Each structure stands twice: as C-alpha cells, then as structure tokens.
Please model this.
Amino acid sequence: MIEEPSVGWYQFTHALIQETLAHELSLTRRVRLHARIAETLETLYGPEIEAYAAVLAYHFAQAEAVTGAEKLVQYSLLAGDSALKVRAFEEAFAHFQRGLTAKGVKLDGLEPAEDEEAAALLSGLGHAQLGAQDISKLTQIVDALTRAFDYHVYAGESDQAVAIALSYFNLSSGRELVQRALMLVPPDSHDAGRLQARNIAPLRYDYDKAQEAFHHALSVARQQRDKSLEMHALVAAACAAHHNGHHAQSVERNRQAIDLFHLVDLPNEEAHARMDLQHALYAMGDLEESTRHAEAMMAPAERTRTNIWQVRAIFTNENVSSAKGDWQSARALIDQGLAMSPQEVNLLSAKVMLEYQLGETDTGEDYLKRLLDTIPIGVSDLPGKVTLTNFPYYTVPAMVIPLVAYITDEISKFDVVEGIVQSVLTSPKICLDIRYAARIAQALMAVQRRESKAASELYGELQLMRGTMSPQGGVGPGLAVDRVLGLLSQTMGNLDQAAATTPIPYASETGLLTATRRRPFWTNHWLSPLNCACAP
Model:
C-alpha cells in the first residue's frame, strides 16, 4: 500500500488508498492530523517555506478549526504571490480568495482594507482576476485594487499605492485611481510618466487630454530611456486614436511600438498593438495587412496567459476570417472563444451573424437570446449609463438586432435598440466610435422603417465616416459606411446618390458584390456588401 520512491520519502501506491483511509478517520482526528502535518512541514521546510506555501495553506485550511486562521491567511498570501509570479492566475485567485475569507474580509465590499495583510490580499485578488477573468469582471477588479490603494494612502505608504495604480488598466475603470496616484508623485518624475501612460486609455473619450497624457508620458520615457514606458505610451495613444476615428495615426503609433518589441518583452502591449492594427487597417480597407497582424497577435496573447487577451486574439482572427467568407474557420474560432468566455459579447455577436447569414436561423436565434441576456438588466432604458467599460454590452446588441431584422423582417426588438441608442447618445464619457455605432444602428432601423426624414438626418451624421468600416475594435460588427449611406439614400428616394458607392478591392474576393437583401442564404449572403469596405 505504501512505496518508497526515494530515500526517506514515502507515498501511497494509489490515490484511492489514501482517499479511502482518510474517509475512515473521524472528522476530529482528520483535523488534528492536518494540524500536525502543517506544523511538521512548517518546521521541515524552514528557509524554503515560500516554495511550499500552497501545501501549507491547504493543510492549515483543513486544520483551521484547531490552528485558527492566522497561519492559513499567511500561507494563502504567500501561495497567491508565488502563483502570480508564474502567471497561474486562477490558482492565485483561489489562494487570495481563501485568505480573505479566512480573515473575514468581504470579497465584494467597497471599504478600504483594514490592515497591510488585507491590502496585500485584495491587491493580489485584483491582479489574479485581471489575468483569470473576462472583461465583465473589470469593475470588481478595480474595486479590489482600490480598497488596497485606499489603505496604503491612509497609512502614508505612497510607493505601495502608486504601484497598485500602475497595474495594467486598459479601460476607463482605472482612471480615478490613476488620477489620485498622480497627486502622490512629483509631476516630472518617472512614476508620473508611468501613471500618465496608464491615464491615456481612460481619457480617450477626451482626445485632447489623452494627447496631453501621451506627450507627457513619452517625454518622460525618452528622458529616462525607458523603452517599456515608451511602448506603453505608444500603444495606449494608438488605441485612443483608433477609437476616435484617427486610423492612420493609430497605425503609425502602433508600428512605432512594434519596432520596440525586440527590446522589451511586454506581451500585453504587443497583443494590444497587433489587435488595434488589425482593427484600424481593416477599417481603412487593407484586409491583407489586417490579416497579418491578426495572425501575429496569437503568440503574444498566449504569452500573457490571460483569458482576456487570448479571447481577444481569437475574436480578432475571426473578424478577418468572416471578412474573407471563410465561414468554417470563423465558426471554429467562435466556438473556441466561447468555450473560454461564454459571455463574450463580440463572439456571441459573430456567432449570431454567421448562423443567420448561412441560413441556420434556429441556431442564430438561440445565440441572439444569449447575446441579449448580456445587456445589463434595468440599465438599457436609463440614459447616460454607457461607459468606456461597459459599452460592448450595449453597442454590440444594438448593431446586431437591426442586422438580424434585415434578414428576418422581425423588427419587434427595435425598442431595445432605441433604449440603448438613447443611453449611448446621452453618455458624456464615451468615444467617437461608440457614438457612430449608435448612429449606424439608428440608420439600419430607419432604412427598414422607411423613415425618409430620419434617413436624411443620419446621412449627414455619418458623412465623416465615408470610406471606412465602422464600428471597429469590439464596438460592434464592422459595416461599410458607404453601403449604409447608399441604403439611406435609397430610403430618401435619391437613387442616383444611392448608386454612387464603389467597393474596394478585397470586396471582390467574396464574389458577392451584387448580393441583395434576402436572397437565399446559401447563394448570396445579404450582409456581404455591408461587410465590404468602400473606397475613400
């Protein structure tokens, strides 16, 4: 029953033997044995104890009724930190969660950490969630980090507070934390430059302020010869440019960032740069170069070992597969991504559109229901609730519903779109591409309702987006704006204007340039003309 694999070490010959014997013990005896094991291992490991923290945390957890929570919390923190170092995010999350629970700290509270240990656990929990969870958890992530930040500020430990604020934020959730951290450092310091680089993305709804933060960060980076900071600043500024319709500037800055890849190993930044290059180039009509960056994104996304970036890489590659009409590859990528993140709105959107275009209406309807379930309950009809953090949960369904209606003639869900559009257009802190997504959704509804006056107004609103695919970057399915303008012109009764749209070269690859509304799905997909960008 017991074997000796090496001198002085013993193990059961089979795990079932250990399990059977353990279950034969009384609960009291089992707890006491775990306590003896934990205390013995603690003495045995001595100076190497950090490497065995996970084992000790397990035994102290089983023996908590006898040994108390102190050692359990101590080793859970050590084990979580060790797991974070090797990017074992889910394992780290479990350790920090167990430590906080043992310490009696609420996981979802807003109050500051009560002591240094609680702050460390909350900070670890936030970082572990950032790697292990999907985008829908960003609010909880920032809440945990803010609670740790608040403790360090209260304790006068500004260095620790700044370190938390410098965590990887790529959406608006971290803005308040970064702004507060900037008050703790000299304005021309290295930390100020790093914080300003973190400040660019949360400020992208105010493009001028985002540019100020970028130039500040870039100046510090070059003064300090900090290539990592330079890359952070370039990628964040490129993202801000792309979301505000400055696609050429986005491409230029991301290419500058790519030149730094061989000097610093920042897989998050490399994945981000490749993703935005794919979106910006696709928006500009360069499908070939867009595809190259989508494929190049996969490797750095995998190196991040984060769910968020791996799912984004899958969606980015699905985007170009669908653009080429490679439905088999697109479906495989969608299914792979949804297995990792079942509530990812862009992948659900892609699944809905793919199935409807291929005539699988029952499957498309099932996934449309799943997509609509992601809309925050009770918020879609309240103006001003769309932010840079939650916008995909609004704009993606708002785009998909009228696109599906164009296929099915079912417009009963347009009231949902109207509520979302109202919320988008009354939200003060969102980017230009989010507003354009709302306008395009309105345009598609106006076309189907044959509302000539609304079509005329929206035609003027969308003029600045001529010659591009919009929206992009996770905001919703990218459509050729010129095609949308053509539909609006037709609705207005201006047939000459409606005919004045010219597809760009890659549109012809699908062979579907003349596809029209509601032709048989298996011969011509009606969306293909809308999904083909038009020449500037």
Summary: The two ends are 76 Å apart (CA to CA). Residues 383 and 400 are 20 Å apart (CA to CA).
